[in-house]
Amino acid sequence: MSTGSPHHWIDYLMLPQDPTTTPRDTTTNDDAATVSKLHLLITETREVLTSTEFTNVAEISLKSCTVALVEDMERETSLATGMQLAKLIPQIEKTVPEISAVPDKNRFLQLIRDLPQVQLFFTLLYSNMPL
Q: Same structural domain for residues 62 and 123?
């Protein structure tokens, strides 16, 4: 893991990037094709996750959800005057069921989905995919 990169978390989610790996000579053609497809998919996924565009979309999405969460908490409590951390945690904990709800009922996912930057990112991403 490289702590110098803002993308070091990707190595936790995916296989570490190793450009020297190739399918073994002892594998069958079907196995080699499967490994090649998997390697290609992992490489493409890594490229998307490390792109500046994805970083920007993730940041915008996180900010919009944070703003919505704070607005909810301001309506329920006097957050504008400040709140102790011990009182803030239960407020955040109350939103966990909503955050983990199915996508159609998840207000935060709907908020992210409706952001123009997110729509543009996925339009461009999927328009460049082979069929």
A: yes
Over residues 92-108, the mean pLDDT reads 82
Tell me the residue range of the domain where 117 lies: 53-131
If asked whether residues 83 and 115 sit together in one domain, one would say: yes
SS (H, E, C) the chain: CCCCCCCCCHHHHCCCCCCCCCCCCCCCHHHHHHHHHHHHHHHHHHHHHCCHHHHHHHHHHHHHHHHHHHHHHHHHCCHHHCCCHHHHHHHHHCCHHHHCCCHHHCHHHHHHHCCHHHHHHHHHHHHCCCC
61 band by pLDDT with thresholds 50, 70 and 90: very high
The total number of structural domains that make up the chain: 2
pTM exceeds cut of 0.70? no
pLDDT of residue 69: 84
pLDDT greater than 80 at residue 32: no
Does 95 lie in the same domain as 57?
yes
